[in-house]
Amino acid sequence: PPERKRFYQNVSISQGEGGFEINLDHRKLKTPQAKLFTVPSEALAVAVATEWDSQKDTIKFYTMHLTTLCNTALDNPTQRNKTQLIRAAVKFLETDTVCYRVEEPAALAELQKNEWDPIVAWAEKRYNVAIGSSTSILGPNIPASTKETFVSHLASYNMWALQGIEYVITQLKSLILSMGLIDRHITVEKAVLLSRLEEEYQIQRWGSVEWAHDYDLCELRARTAAGTLFVHLCSESSTVKHKLLQD
Q1: Where is this gene product found (predicted)?
Q2: In order of start, what are the domains of the chain with their CATH numbers?
């Protein structure tokens, strides 16, 4: 959406029957489909309210990733159920970034082996599955049992968290990196670096377009971090003190 002039002075949260609501002055925030913007945890409400309070003279919607994720969870514009969300996430295994390897140039092949093999090995041990990798354009042959294991694991998350998980997977083009990130095995910076390994290799060789590379990198980190935070805030029972935006 285009930027909009900031029309409110104060942001606060309040608890309603369905959860925690965001108030812009005396107006209750609504979703694009005009539903009451209500989130399941106070911590998530504080995070969203902080996004709105951080806007200056104009509202830059494209910087408000948590708000966007909440809108998606509330409006469910694609009308998918939990099973469909899980299947969509697991389908990324078939084209997972860290499973596709090159044979040439040798330096890049070695880099992929050194950087990606450890995260694949971690996932195989963590979930007791076989994943592997391949230099074929068809990718690795992921066993059906591996897919079902991830289906079962993702089923333990609620619908809100699943929206966030799929969002992170979409950013990184990798279920394996996303699970490592959400399980706190790797950091956001590491996950993003591993997802862009070939691009970073090419940049080291040929250089980058001035400012464009840094902008893309920061944007990807911001989206990935927001998605990961969203998953955690939707998965954990956490409370925060009522100090919203007072510091």
Answers
A1: Mitochondrion inner membrane
A2: 11-75 (3.30.2180.10), 82-235 (1.10.3580.10)
